[in-house]
């Protein structure tokens, strides 16, 4: 039972500090929708998603009304579509369009799973799906795509890395009249997880139950406010303890919403993802948490250490509040979605190299970063390779979601609106790496992969 004090505290978190449930995401297996006829397969895909998720938005709104907490997005993730393409053959864009149609028909915000897992090579359907991404994302509105190019167990597929540099650039070009938004719905992973509820990287892993509900909680503003109330002379260990206690409270709300949504929809409860996901709202910023800890600006020396402490404390506090923790769970650093990050980039205290260093200790990787439109596919592949190497060696999930701003130069801005915010175009190192990227092949798995 909650005390009156705890109830009022939660109300303050919602009203003053931007606490929300960032997403309830229904994961749906499409394994039983496979067919040698692509049109029949598409019919099965539409029917299953509609049948399973038609009440997702309705239930989300009921939970918002009942508990008074905003649920910002209602989403669906599905089995990697490359598996269905491998069975059916044909044009993968047919699947993209049917996924977008069902997303519109049931009223959800995004649908993820236009994906392929190619960390150790390409199977039937993988290359076809990857090559279709620019067209698929330019002809849909709610579809999100992800490709996994490496893992600690397998190493990095550099042939896939080379492909993805070109695909990211081509996707930006294909959507240049809409602020290159297609590239903002495309993620390249190393060590992708099967139960991530956050877009654009969500897909439903083949080891998951047939249908599950995963919840992504958020609350950077709540953590920032809690630290702000701490004495100025509080030690770093005391700050870590404050973060743990705050994360416990945030996660408990996610556990409640996830279990209730699962019960009302008649599907299994999957996981709660503990990630602190910022929004463009004032005060709802991971960068501002780091600044509240004591940095003049995000990007100052000490940023990586403060972020490591934040990430660890969030996980420790969240684990005590929930018996089903998964997904990515940590602190996100998406530049376009975080006002503090945007300010730091504009002031020049935060650049791509510092962001890369921060990804060694944060939840995912280089996220929602705009780069000059003239950037070559090989340079983009190099950024992907570097980030994948961090994930592979450190046995963590890393990802790249960068947006070549076609026709724009450093200092200019891409405006997305909504949760995606706006992204200042970073000035990045354009030194040629063509010979390395064009070698192809595989970076072998590191020694730490041999755990059996």
What report would you give on this structure?
The chain folds into two domains: 22-190, Anaerobic Ribonucleotide-triphosphate Reductase Large Chain; 216-444, Alpha-Beta Barrel (Anaerobic Ribonucleotide-triphosphate Reductase Large Chain), CATH 3.20.70.20. The chain has helices spanning 4-17, 38-53, 56-67, 81-88, 93-106, 126-138, 158-174, 220-228, 236-265, 286-293, 303-319, 339-347, 352-358, 377-394, 434-439; strands at residues 21-28, 71-78, 110-117, 143-151, 155-157, 186-190, 211-217, 268-273, 366-372, 398-405, 413-415, 422-424, 442-443. The chain has 452 residues and is of the alpha/beta class. The protein starts with a helix and ends in a 9-residue tail after the last strand. The strands form two sheets. Strands 1, 2, 3, 4, 5, 6, 7, 8, 9, 10 and 13 form an eleven-stranded mixed sheet that branches. A two-stranded antiparallel sheet has the order 11-12. Helix 4 (81-88) crosses helix 6 (126-138).
Question: Do you know the CATH architecture of the largest domain?
Answer: Alpha-Beta Barrel
Into which percentage range does the β-strand content fall? 15-25%
Radius of gyration: 21 Å
CATH class term of the largest domain: Alpha Beta
Shape assignment: globular
The residue ranges in which pLDDT falls below 50 over 5 or more consecutive positions are none
- The number of E-state strands comes to 13
Helix and strand element order: HEHHEHHEHEEHEEHHEHHHHEHEEEHE
Q: Tell me the distance between the termini.
A: 44 Å
Structural classification: alpha/beta
Taking the sheet with the most strands, its summary is: 11 strands, mixed
Q: pLDDT average, as an integer? A: 91
CATH topology of the largest domain: Anaerobic Ribonucleotide-triphosphate Reductase Large Chain
Supply the number of helical segments: 15
How much helicity do the residues have?
A: 40-55%
State the domain count.
Answer: 2
